[in-house]
Input
Amino acid sequence: MKIVSVEPFILHVPLNRSSISDSSHTITHWGVVGVRLTGDDGTAGYGFTGTHAHLASDRLITACIRDCYAELLVGEDALDITRLWRKLARFPAIQWVGRAGITQLALAAVDIALWDLKAKAAGMPLWKLLGGATSPELEAYNTDIGWLSIPVDQLVAGSLKAVEVDGYRRLKLKVGSDNIMTDLERIAKVRDAVGPAVTIAVDGNGKWDLPTCLRFCERATPLDLFWFEEPLWYDDIAGHAALARATSIPIALGEQLYHADGFAGFMDAGAVHYVQPDVTRLGGVSEYVTVAEAAHARRLPVVPHVGDMGQIHVHLAAWHPATTMLEFIPWIMDCFVEPIVVEGGTYALPQMPGASSTPTEEAFAQFARPLA
Ligand code: 0YR
Ligand code: MG
Output
């Protein structure tokens, strides 16, 4: 199937409340920044990365697709994904200015669109094409109840509702306040409310330094935290290794890493226990698989971060044997032809051909932003 057109797009989708904050970001919209690749038989493949809906930087991503990658794709066979990925990722002049950041996010959008096309051409959902589902049950953990911007009474009420009404058995709470006692009190109140059987992970989004994390972990240990995510600056392998040695709380990270090499560094240093690759940042499915396999070879669990809000990761998670749970944030699901479905705290398997990455016509009509 020859690629005949490469059309980037930007959608800015409003969140389910006016804004949310973690320790490092405050956002009002989620950015779905991607590309439609059309084959000569008329099939369209869609891929996208996830952003904080900042129009100027989103346009750098679509400009990279339009001005750098498009001419490398048009006329090529869309099914030769491995070769095409290398053609784009290793194109000397682009690699020189890129390799991480904008060019890698743009590459992820293209690669996911290629996999969507391939799965559509094969007439099966991506998880089936990759090898079939191995998780008997893909558990969802709820991040959307736990933003740092949620006042503590609402945090407790939302956690209780997620457990008692919606059936979640796993929650994640944001931490990273100026005073660790604020965070400890918030977690303790949730723990009191939901009881010992519900797992509670926390996510620092890279805000604190090592001494702060050490103090926090010592005081948080009785709260039985499932993991401490991004406790320190994203690339600090030695710091995470030191923290991992000092605490019994498992370390999770990976959402800000661009390559398998970074993951290998953390794993070799014993600095990560829950490995969190994100296909929308790693340049696409092939690099994601490299990370998942490297983790699996070390028998570490893989729990992807959902820059795509789970649309594509549900396929990767259902397929890959190192993954038995997946983050859930319900921000953009209404924008897709086949939205993710979570019931009773469990993800449903997608059934339509493709990667569940096709936005609806209504989503384009409502949320598309101009590329220039
Ligand atoms: C909001 N999930 C995360 C969101 C999320 C961030 O800034 O992007 O909290 O990516 O850390 O685990
Ligand atoms: Mg996180």
